[in-house]
Amino acid sequence: MSNLPIENIRSFSDAHPKPSALHFQYGTAGFRTLGSTLDSVIFRVGILAGLRSKRLDGRTIGVMVTASHNPEEDNGVKLVDPRGEMLEASWEAHATVVANAPTTDALLEALDALVKTAKIDLSKPARVVYARDTRPSGPALISALEDGFKALGVEARDGGVTTTPILHYLVKAINTKGTKESYGEDSEDGYYTKLSGAFKKLIAGKTKPDPLIIDCANGVGASAAAKLATYLGDSLPLILENTDITTPGVLNHACGADYVKTQQKLPPSLIDRLQPGQRACSLDGDADRLMYYYLDERGQFHMLDGDKIAALVAAFIVELVKLAGLESDVKVGVVQTAYANGASTKYLAERLPVKCVPTGVKHLHHAAEHYDIGVYFEANGHGTVLFSQQTQETFAKYEPSTPAQSTALNHLINLTQLINQTVGDALSDMLLVEVVLTHKSYAGAEWNSLYADLPNRLVKVVVSDRNTFKTEDAERRLVSPPGLQAKINELVLRYEGGRSFVRPSGTEDVVRVYAEAALKSQADELAFRVAGLVYDEAGGDPSKRPSEFLP
Ligand code: G16
């Protein structure tokens, strides 16, 4: 067993000191905070990624530098495990310890302890592929990351400026190259070719879709969508909006999937662009979330969020499985979180098994793996569909007995190619939605009428310490601060169809409050009253109440 290159790590680490006053936490989607404070964290993540690769026998680990839907001044980093999925949970704690070692000596001790507890054979190779989004703080943070690679001696491949889901795709493609589970060419070209090829097969012979407007959130999705458009040709005409990746301050600002979901309205930049009946969608800053919407003939805005996507897609897949004659072999299930609209849960649960898990793609992904075909979507538009290895083998071996069965089977096989099964992927999900709409001849209105959303409201509350908020039952109940849940329950009872829950965010320094009720005004009132309770409990400054509640 070789040793850690102590002196090398020491000299690099001294150039990336940890800010003494800050504590970092590997949260819902990695480390995420102000980009200007992340230099030491990202450097250390470089070393950590290398150690994770050594632990897994030199398999390639992914590192993505992004803060996704967060404002432009934030940045972050997440690690991707070899099959393209999120970092294994036990290593999140290791990452937090390593990121918080106060000095270089303490860092060396933490790394040494990690090597021992995780039984890492340091003689194994370390391989990493990394990428970043378009944030201005990205280049400097990438150079800190590269110092981390140099400090440990990592064989690193630069994925450049790209979307989070493309980085996940690359990780899986690299690690499955030349095996029977090969995921595709390990390049961006491989990704676009795979998705666009499957899309064209799935809509062959159908009426060509009308042009689709994409709000690219002024982020990396703009260049990815432009590239995808060239591979799609005229099979799906795309109109790209909010594609400014150079003007400071515009990323995710008054546009993008998070804006649409939380404001429940059209990005102002689309007001004169979107015609009644036309489909449009928004990506977020790293293109892993997707929100659809349309205006009706009266110009009224209608949002088709992650729950509506799950309903559309799950119903389509169930129908194909049935048409293929596979319903007794292949079971489809859905995974949601507490944010799922109550009406969507009701609609889905009447048709399929539905499970509720805590927020965070990693939780949904793992739960979805328990189904033959697992459809998971967060209401915020983050999700995908997983086909188990066994299901994919069933498709490959199955001999259909009628032409109709054969067609349905081919569609299912093409869906396994169209869908990015590593993680939620806005572009892949967008193609999936377009396939279903094309097959069903649905416009936005027909899709929207699958069920009627219960009015709901999401608000953020700034508190002094969000870590005092602890939850249970898939985040549907607060256990701390003590007594607060009882007060929320009491309030909820006063609203028809009322439901509300409170949880600390894992990506922003806020507590989130969700409420729904039979009427919009009631959902708003309930959300703000629960937010008021949270604010009072958390010792907020009374002079700032309630204007501190951000939408
Ligand atoms: C990330 C996670 C999502 C999660 C979201 C909000 O999204 O990947 O699973 O729903 O954060 O999490 P929280 O409410 O804990 O802040 P993204 O798109 O920002 O990577």
From TrEMBL:
Alphabetical list of CDD domains matching this protein: PGM3 (cd03086)
Reactions this protein catalyses: N-acetyl-alpha-D-glucosamine 1-phosphate = N-acetyl-D-glucosamine 6-phosphate
Residue ranges constituting the Alpha-D-phosphohexomutase C-terminal domain according to the UniProt record: 459-531
Cofactor(s) demanded: Mg(2+)
Binding site for Mg(2+): S68, D284, D286, D288
Gene3D superfamilies from the UniProt entry: Alpha-D-Glucose-1,6-Bisphosphate, subunit A, domain 3, Alpha-D-phosphohexomutase, C-terminal domain
EC number(s) from the headed UniProt entry: 5.4.2.3
Keywords, ordered alphabetically: Carbohydrate metabolism, Cell wall biogenesis/degradation, Isomerase, Magnesium, Metal-binding, Phosphoprotein
Domain Phosphoacetylglucosamine mutase AMG1, first and last residues per copy: 187-290, 305-442
Cofactor note: Binds 1 Mg(2+) ion per subunit.
Enzyme class: isomerase
Domain Alpha-D-phosphohexomutase alpha/beta/alpha: start-end pairs: 61-90, 103-178
Protein name per Swiss-Prot or TrEMBL: Phosphoacetylglucosamine mutase
Gene source species: Agrocybe pediades
